[in-house]
Each structure stands twice: as structure tokens, then as C-alpha cells.
From TrEMBL, chains A, B:
GO molecular function: DNA-binding transcription factor activity; transcription cis-regulatory region binding
UniProt protein name: Transcriptional regulator, LacI family
Gene3D superfamilies reported in the protein's UniProt record: 3.40.50.2300, lambda repressor-like DNA-binding domains
InterPro entries per the UniProt record, alphabetical: HTH_LacI, Lambda_DNA-bd_dom_sf, Peripla_BP/Lac1_sug-bd_dom, Peripla_BP_I
Keywords from the named record: DNA-binding, Transcription, Transcription regulation
Top-level taxon: Bacteria
Residues covered by the HTH lacI-type domain: 5-59
Pfam annotation, one family: LacI
Source organism of the structure: Arenibacter nanhaiticus
Length: 339, 339
DNA sequence: TATTAACACGAAACCGTTTTCGAAGGGTAA
DNA sequence: TTACCCTTCGAAAACGGTTTCGTGTTAATA
């Protein structure tokens, strides 16, 4: 096992001072060509690489970004993460990934741990529990310490910081409009409880699209499910009970399950009933028929979040101007709607 | 913006030395109760938290684990990652996640970057390109520096280190045996080229199961696809050409696509033809019919990998004993086979 | 010959901790 | 009074770098 070589080793070996070695390796003008050549050759030979930790301590910059998401086994979050990682890597940053598991406590613990010097900034999507509790003191703490923060997807108005979201309202609006243009009249919405910022927005878009096209908004065509467990029975019952010819679902799982259920009753998709689901994930692509989806462009979202964060990290000036970037959605048409 | 408080600040404020503060906060016997009380109260009031970076430099321990995987938008890898993260977090470690994007160069760059002090050990699955190139010098370098390394899933015999794999051969063997017990005779295998360690093992299990049950092994019932792009036409043609009543696929995508194709031809699953796919992912669960799957227990795999790594990191002794843990698979029966 | 500038390098401080060792001061025993 | 021992604290080194400032040497200039 060959130990990592340090400046001190090189200095001792070549009988020069540590400062000379440091400068020589940075090609400083101060050092004579002879000495530089000698030192650089030696360093290359022994594959010298500066210690990241020492540099971090000195510069008070870690070149690490902390990312906290509710769950990693989740298609949308992974695409966002990919966007973050790619951009960050290209800029020389590494990414520390933590999962909150939708738990407030885990979110707080992870943040506090990382905030003690391990990272230069945070990118995060709030956990469900945090949104329900509506407690954002851990975020405020971090902001007060001057650590840059970017929120994406699951955000809150309580915190002033950079944000990236998709235009959830517009996405739902587009989807419902497509249904209407396809001649659908009985358009249902299957969503989650309101504490999610995204669900609220999508519900708004759904309602607005109906009203703008002179269709009635009817409460009984909206099914609100509590998060966490997919209540299949509630979905089945809802689909059996109401007279419906189109369904907008706020996630893939609801949509896929609904499609299976109506298919098992002998209905034909999209002839008898058509579907659109949020998040253009893997299920939409491979279901039968393919599920028309509202694409959220997760990777782009991640890249933008990373760009905003690194911009803040690297800007010297301490201006307090925050921007919220809103990404438009795209409808990806597949077999579950008439195209 | 309130700056992070350091030992030095406390020392100056209370007119004691830095060492006294440090000791007092660790409740050292050396310091009088009065002084300790005073210092601890002050520290608590100003919410003092030691700087992770400084501690890392001092201890030469970062409490960070580097994880390098080919892709994050991939169900199996995310489940493994979840297992790693959970275990590591419980042990006080953070996880730095990098993606190699199946690229040799990215794998090398990421490893070298992290190896310079940022992490205490690596957990990784080899990129496709690395396996094709069969070049593991970057792994050897890291091992030589005494940095612990655990390989999972995509491994190699060229490197001596701890490893976790699933029993791919046994998984395929089980699946084929199930087909045979269900009365299937024309059992096909759709797999990737041989450079993947996992594909090779699965092909072995497929062959062995056939031979052990006195069925012929026929080359024309095995379709080997190059990785990266799912060649849908090749699959269709293969399914149309051969007389087949059961198909084992080495991943979900192949299986789902195959099922769609035979369904579109009017065949009934599992009556006319049945399917089993590797990786019990989200597609298997939500396809119609559900895909019987060989579960790889990714989360357990991740937990074991993390356990092995942390064990190595924290053990003082420098024994060179490496173990390979082999996880057995489980068949998760669903509608694509007769049960 | 004395002054000065350029060149090449080293000493030391610093980032924020931990830890070893030494020392001041007071108390006790001989 | 002397010797010794606790108790309690601080100085300093160390982790591995960067950077400022100073200094010795040499050569050019007055």
C-alpha cells in the first residue's frame, strides 16, 4: 500500500520548502524554471494530487452540493437528479445525495449535518411531512447562515430562495383541453390531498380548463386520495360509480391502475375512455396502450436548479435577489388518447 | 446573515484558550465544572457545531462514502442505492453519488476525484464500457492506496475486494425450472451480449436448467442483443420466427416489449406463451398481465455492500481477506405465468 | 564603491479542529 | 520550610494545503 504523497514529502525529498513546492506546482512566476521543472517532474512521477479536504478547509469551499429528495426510487426524482449531477459534474462539483424518506425529521437531520461545512449549497424537494407540518425552520436556519438554497418541484412560499417548478397548472390545463378537443365531456381528475403544492396547482388547471370551455366543474368527478398508499379500491369504486369518458391522473401509478381496471371491465382505451397521466415516466412508455403523459422535463429541471445554485455559490456579491423559474410542460401523445 | 461560530470565537469571547473550549465541549475531566458549564452554555446559546471539514482533515476520515453507478434512472440501481444510503446514514456516513453513464472515462475521472481525500471508501457497479475494455487500473490504483472498495452486481474477477452479487445463474435456473414444471417445452432466452458478468451467468443457468431436465439447448432459441438500444425489430422477428411457448428475459424492458408484441398478434399470456423477467421492478408490477419476475433484492444488496464497506473502513487491522456475498433470488409470481 | 532593483526562495500565518505536554498555583505531608 | 502532588488550564504541533511578506543573493546602475 503506497501512501498518498503530500507537499511536505516532496519538499523534504527535494530539499526545498513547502511553499516553493506549492508555488512550483501552480506554475508560479516566482519560481525559477529549473526548480519548477524538477518539482513538477517529481510530482508527476509520484502522481501527486492535492488533498481535497485541505483545500476545502483553506478555501472554505467544498465543491460539494447537497441534494435532499424524498425518495430515490422514483422516476421523476431520478431524472432531476441526473440533470443536477451532470451539470454539477461539468462544473467540477460533486453531489451528496440524501433521502428524507418523506420524513420531516430525516430532512432536518440531514440538512443540519451537511450544513456544518460539508457542502456549499443545497438543492431540495420538500418531504411530504414537511409540507404537512408547514415547518420550515431548518430551511430558514440554513438561509441565515448564508448557504445558498434552491427548491424544486415541491416548494413553499414561506422561504425566499431560488426555485424551479414546472407549470403544473398549465400542464393540467393543457391535458384537459386536449380531452375537450377530443370530444370528451365527462372528465375526471384523480389526485392527492391538497398539501402538495403540485397537486393544488394541477387541480386548479383542471378546473380552469373546464370553466374556460364552458363545461361544469363537478366535485364528484374529482377523487382525492391520501398520499403514501395507493388506495386501489377507492379508485375502482370511483371509476365504477361515476360516468366518465376521460381521466387525468396526477401520477403514473393512478393512471396505470385505472387503465387496468377499466380494461378488466371490458372498456376500450381510448375509444370508451381515455387517459392522461402526469410524469412521463417509464410506466407511461411501456403500458398497453401507451399512456399519454404530461412531461415534466425532470432532467432540464435538475440542470437549471444546479445552474442557479452554482451561480449563487460562485457570485461574490451578496445580493438578495431570488428568481423562480417555471418550466412549461409538454404533452407526449400515446395510445391512451385519440391522436 | 449570522456567521458560523468557531472554537476561536468562543475562546476569545470567554477569555479562555481554544484548547480549553475544545476540551470543555467534550466534557473532559481536565476542565473544572464551572468553566465547562460556562462554555457549554455559551456554545449551546450560539448553536455551535464543529466544522466537518476541519474534523475530516484532522482525523483523516471524512465519513463520506463514494458510490459510482452506471445510471441513476434505473430501478434496480436506485433500490441498491436506497439500501446503501439507509445503512450508511444510520452509521453516520453520507453518500456522494456519481454516475458513470456507462462510460469508462467518466468512471475513472469520478474515482480519481473522490479518491483524493473526499471519501473513505467506494461502492460501485462497473460501467458497460469498463467491462468491455476490461481495464481496471483505476480500481487497482485505489486499492493500492488502501481505500476500501466494494463491488456489486457488475463485478470483475480481476480485482480483489469485497463483492456482493446475486446468484444470477440460480435465478435463471429457477425461472427455467418453473417454466418446465408448468409444462413448457420451447423455452427462449432474450439476453445481452456476453460482456456483462450478469448476462453470462444467467445464460449459464438457462442452459443448465434445460440440460438437467433433459431438454435440448438450442442456440436458435437464444437471442443476444447488443446493449444500449433496445432493438425492437430484432425481438419481434425473433418471436415471430421461432416456435416458443416461454421466454426468459434478462431485463424488464425486453420482457415488456415481447409481451406487447405477442399480445398484438393475438396470443394469450400465459395460455399460449408465458414470460419471466429479471429485476422485479416497477414495470413488472404494473404491466398487464403482471410480469412474473426474478427479484434481485436490490435494497438488501445495498445494505450488505454498505455494511461490508464500513466494516473495512472502521477496522484498524489491515488484513487482506475479501469476501463475496451471493444473494439468492426469489421468483415473484404474477399473471405472465401459470401459477 | 555604494545603492538599488530583480530574482528566487523560505518563514510563518491561516483555515478549524484535536491532543500532547508543560506549567502555574494551591494544598498537603514530612 | 521544603518537597511533592493535584487541579486546571494554555501553548504548540499536527492534519495538508495557500498566500503574504520578508530576505539573501546577484547584477545593474550611479
Amino acid at each position: 500500500m503506497k501512501q498518498k504523497i503530500t507537499l511536505k514529502h516532496i519538499a523534504r525529498e527535494l530539499s526545498v520548502s513547502i511553499s516553493t513546492v506549492s508555488k512550483a506546482l501552480k506554475n508560479s512566476e516566482e519560481i525559477s524554471k529549473d526548480t519548477k521543472d524538477k518539482i513538477q517532474a517529481f510530482a508527476k512521477l509520484y502522481n501527486y494530487k492535492p488533498n481535497n479536504i485541505a483545500i476545502s478547509l483553506k478555501n472554505r469551499r467544498t465543491k460539494n452540493i447537497g441534494v435532499i429528495i424524498p425518495d430515490i426510487v422514483h422516476h421523476f426524482f431520478t431524472t432531476v437528479f441526473r440533470g443536477i449531477e451532470n451539470y454539477a459534474n461539468a462544473k467540477g462539483y460533486n453531489v451528496i445525495l440524501c433521502m428524507s424518506d418523506e420524513s420531516f425529521d430525516k430532512e432536518v437531520i440531514n440538512m443540519e449535518l451537511l450544513a456544518n461545512g460539508s457542502i456549499d449549497g443545497f438543492i431540495m424537494a420538500l418531504s411530504a411531512e414537511t409540507q404537512i407540518k408547514n415547518d420550515y425552520n431548518h430551511l430558514k436556519e440554513v438561509a441565515e447562515q448564508g448557504i445558498p438554497l434552491v427548491l424544486f418541484d415541491r416548494i413553499t412560499d414561506e422561504i425566499e430562495c431560488d426555485k424551479v417548478v414546472i407549470n403544473d397548472m398549465e400542464g393540467a390545463y393543457k391535458a384537459v383541453t386536449k380531452f375537450i378537443e377530443d370530444g370528451r365531456k365527462q372528465i375526471a381528475l384523480i389526485t392527492t390531498e391538497d398539501y402538495y403544492s403540485v397537486s393544488r396547482e394541477r387541480a386548479k388547471g383542471y378546473k380552469q380548463a373546464l370553466l374556460d370551455h364552458n363545461l361544469p366543474y363537478r366535485e364528484n368527478l374529482v377523487l382525492k386520495l391520501p398520499f403514501m398508499d395507493v388506495d386501489e379500491l377507492a379508485i375502482n369504486e370511483f371509476l365504477d360509480r361515476e360516468k366518465i369518458d376521460a381521466v387525468l391522473c396526477v401520477n403514473e401509478i393512478y393512471a396505470i391502475h385505472s387503465m387496468r381496471h377499466v380494461q378488466s371491465k371490458g372498456l376500450s382505451i381510448p375509444k370508451d375512455i381515455s387517459f392522461i397521466g402526469f410524469t412521463d415516466g417509464i410506466l407511461s412508455k411501456y403500458s398497453t396502450p401507451g399512456l399519454t403523459a404530461v412531461s415534466q422535463h425532470g432532467e432540464k429541471m435538475g440542470a437549471i436548479a444546479a445552474e442557479m445554485l452554482i451561480e449563487k455559490i460562485e457570485s461574490e456579491k451578496e445580493e438578495e435577489t431570488y428568481t423562480t423559474t417555471v418550466l412549461d410542460t409538454t404533452i407526449v401523445a400515446r395510445g391512451s388518447t385519440n391522436n
